[in-house]
Design a protein that fits this description.
The chain is built from ten helices and twelve strands. With 472 residues, the chain is α+β, with helices and mostly antiparallel strands. The strands form three sheets. The protein has a five-stranded antiparallel β-sheet with strand order 2-1-5-4-3. The chain has a five-stranded mixed β-sheet with strand order 7-9-10-12-11. A two-stranded antiparallel sheet has the order 6-8. Strand 9 and strand 10 form a beta hairpin. Helix 2 crosses helix 3. The two termini are 49 Å apart.
């Protein structure tokens, strides 16, 4: 159930809505129970009060008149007792349980006596089945009655079906009223949460914007008071980050510029020394080190220019199949030197819209990196896969030493799995430069490890035909 907990509690909006809905549900249920209980008490309390008043009136009438005259007067005053209706009933039992007096409405049947003992000085209310088969409510009380050696038992009853129907209608009204109120409250809660969190959502969208520039800082002044400290802190952090990145890029660019001239002088000096020595082999290693440093400097300069936005992509129609064949030809020599087999399945031509120079540099870096780090006598695979109006380029090489945790560092500057950088022919910036150039072209470069094979995937390469159809 962790996914359910994450779904319910992973969002502030859902937390608020869950809290409000739960609270409203408990409140509405409690309100329904209290109202229902109170109304039931009122309805049946009135019925019990009416029955008790009638029972006491009948007791007074029987006490002041003979039973026959009292019953005649009662049936004349309230015709229901005479059988003109079937809503009111009366019956008196002596202390031995024999009927002493009964209203004509009882007909030949008897009322149901109370199942529990009736107190001497208090009425006893209970539900019963009336002689006509309807549901009824009765009150029993003890009184002195002529002809009974002890206290007689008087029971006065009345139909309760109309009261029950009234109670049901009140229940329905309460249910629909509570449900309607709950739905309206839920809707208002949803709108309130949505409206209240709209500034926070907008704040998150601004903060998540990867293209945010220092001049496009978060509008802290226009935000709610609660979000202003966060916006101000983020703006300050963005400014510091931009300043740090700017200083880093300027430093790398300045260092690269300053080192190019000394490296050129060192190379010239070593080459001159090679001419004047009998055994030039030891100096060849120095030249290779200088060349590696030169490639590193060129990579730093390229990264600085593209990350600073100084160089932009120039899109034009490009046959990517032809570009890949040229890259394969360039990688043929180092692949043959390490006895690595390069396999490629390419169409005769495939036209896309891209910057030829940038895309060529990305492909060269990826392919040469795969050839260099593939184990000897292994193979490198290159494929161009077409998917829904675009294509993706995949280059894979066996990488038995890599783990899934290493994928997060692929494309990081100067990072290698092994610390023996001196054996590399590159400057350690090939994948970093490829990733930066991919972002300039609006492409995504990502790495996957499948069954010991490292796959570099570049996508989406947009087909010219699909672009033309989309523009039209």
């Amino acid at each position: 159930m962790s996914w359910l907990r994450e779904w319910a509690l992973g969002s502030i909006a859902r937390r608020l809505l869950l809290f409000l809905f739960s609270g409203l549900s408990v409140l509405m249920i409690s309100l329904f129970v209290l109202l229902d209980y109170g109304i039931d008490r009122q309805i049946f309390g009135r019925l019990d009060d009416t029955l008790l008043a009638r029972a006491r009136g009948i007791a007074v009438l029987l006490d002041s008149h003979p039973s026959g005259e009292a019953l005649s007067e009662l049936q004349a005053f309230i015709p229901e007792y005479a059988g003109g209706g079937h809503t009111d009933f009366l019956q008196i039992w002596d202390d031995r349980g024999h009927t002493m007096l009964a209203s004509a409405s009882n007909a030949a049947a008897n009322l149901q006596p109370p199942t529990a003992a009736v107190p001497a000085n208090a009425p006893y209310f209970y539900d019963m089945r009336l002689p006509d088969g309807h549901r009824g409510r009765g009150v029993a009380m003890r009184l002195a009655f002529s002809g009974s050696t002890g206290d007689a038992l008087l029971v006065v009853a009345e139909e309760r079906e109309q009261v029950d129907m009234l109670e049901q209608r009140v229940h329905l009204a309460l249910i629909f009223g509570v449900l309607g109120t709950a739905l309206i409250a839920a809707l208002l809660s949803f709108l309130a949460v949505r409206g209240g969190l709209r500034p926070l959502i907008a704040f998150g969208a601004h903060a998540e914007d990867k293209e945010l520039k220092p001049a496009e800082a978060l509008p802290a002044a226009r935000m709610p008071r609660e979000l202003r400290p966060f916006a101000t802190a983020l703006n300050t952090s963005f400014e510091r980050l931009q300043d740090a990145l700017g200083r880093e890029r300027r430093f790398a660019r300045d260092v690269a510029h300053e080192l190019r001239t000394p490296l050129a002088e060192m190379r010239m000096a070593v080459e001159l020394a090679q001419r004047d020595t009998v055994d030039a082999a030891p100096l060849q290693g120095a030249i290779e080190s200088i060349e590696r440093m030169g490639r590193c400097i060129d990579g730093l300069l390229s990264l600085s220019r593209y990350e600073a936005g100084m160089d932009q992509a120039q899109l034009e129609p490009l046959d990517v199949a032809d570009l890949l064949r040229r890259a394969l030809a360039l990688a043929a020599a180092p692949a043959a030197e390490r006895e690595v087999l390069v396999e490629a399945g390419l169409p005769s031509e495939y036209w896309i819209s891209s910057d030829p120079a940038l895309l060529e540099r990305i492909v060269d870096n990826l392919l040469l990196n795969a050839v260099e780090y593939a184990p000897p006598h292994s193979r490198v695979q290159l494929s161009l896969q077409q998917v829904d109006g675009s294509s993706r380029l995949r280059i894979g090489n066996e990488a038995p030493d890599l783990g899934t945790e290493d994928l997060l560092r692929m494309g990081e500057r100067f990072w290698r799995k092994t610390q023996a950088r001196e054996i590399s022919r590159h400057g350690g910036l090939g994948l970093a430069l490829a990733r930066t150039l991919a972002e300039v072209l609006g492409l995504r470069l990502h790495f996957e490890l499948e069954h010991g094979v490292l796959w570099a995937t570049l996508e989406p390469l947009r087909d010219i035909t699909a672009i033309a159809e989309q523009d039209s």
